[in-house]
TrEMBL record:
Belongs to the GHMP kinase family. Homoserine kinase subfamily. It comes from the Bacteria. GO terms for cellular component: cytoplasm. The keyword Amino-acid biosynthesis applies. This is Homoserine kinase. Catalyzes the ATP-dependent phosphorylation of L-homoserine to L-homoserine phosphate. Pathway: Amino-acid biosynthesis; L-threonine biosynthesis; L-threonine from L-aspartate: step 4/5. Pfam families: GHMP_kinases_C, GHMP_kinases_N. Residues 201-277 form the GHMP kinase C-terminal domain.
Amino acid sequence: MSWFIRVPSSTSNLGAGFDSIGLALNLYLELAVAKSDKWEFIPTSSCLEGIPSGKDNLVYEIVERVAERHDRINDLTPCRVEMKSDIPLARGLGSSATAIIAGIELANLLLNLDLEQDEKLEIATEIEGHPDNVAPSLLGGCVIGHYDGEVAYTQIPVKGVTFVAIIPNFELKTKDARAVLPNSFSFKESVQASSVANVSVAAICQGNWRLLGEMMKKDHFHQPYRKSLIPHYDDLLHYLNESALGVFLSGAGPTMIAIVDDKNVFTALKKWRSEFPEFEWLSLQVENGGSYVETRKESMIRHDG
């Protein structure tokens, strides 16, 4: 018996949707799992080189947390886990959220918990602290969520646009990006910031991406503060906004994402890559399927000898 788990990456915040709006993208973390005599995590992608190989791996830590939550820690079976990913680490594309969802899915399989999607989301959000990354990675599509001990969310269909990720060659840790945010807003500032977020949600619901792009320019919550950590932010933002429907900082950064009409993405991307070859440019689509789990009767993990 073995299992295959695939979890899509995510982008979050979408301008003023701080800690509450995210959408799944077609970059993935994949796990090939087989029972073993010890816990072992084997990276098969270059971006995962150097990850913890034993019980200090984040996926195992989540498995253990779910098991403890259900008082089943003694029922866990050790596994050999081959991990493959095309999600850049510490770039604002939800790599840690995919590990959280993968760990929950693995615990659900090993312990036969039969968790409902909402139960998985509750556990993931409790761990992450907010639903904007974990919810899309679990459920797929665009998810707008709220968390105050309980999760409330809605899913919005997305079509007709491509999300072009502009990835620099340096990492930005979430804790560092959080450290530059203000501790509080005045009442007047809060009203202004929330009104921008409200219009942003309405624009997503209507598929009015140009209006969303205008609201992204007016974000008060995080982009004005985090751009100080990204030297190229202002120049690239100005350049991309000439032809993109909208541009935003993905998650905590440093990846920026341009929203482009599907009809124009080929031409725009060709031009952008030639003008800024120092960045990695990825043309991404919304992944509407969420996480995927498959049980296999015969292990696909082969060992020499």
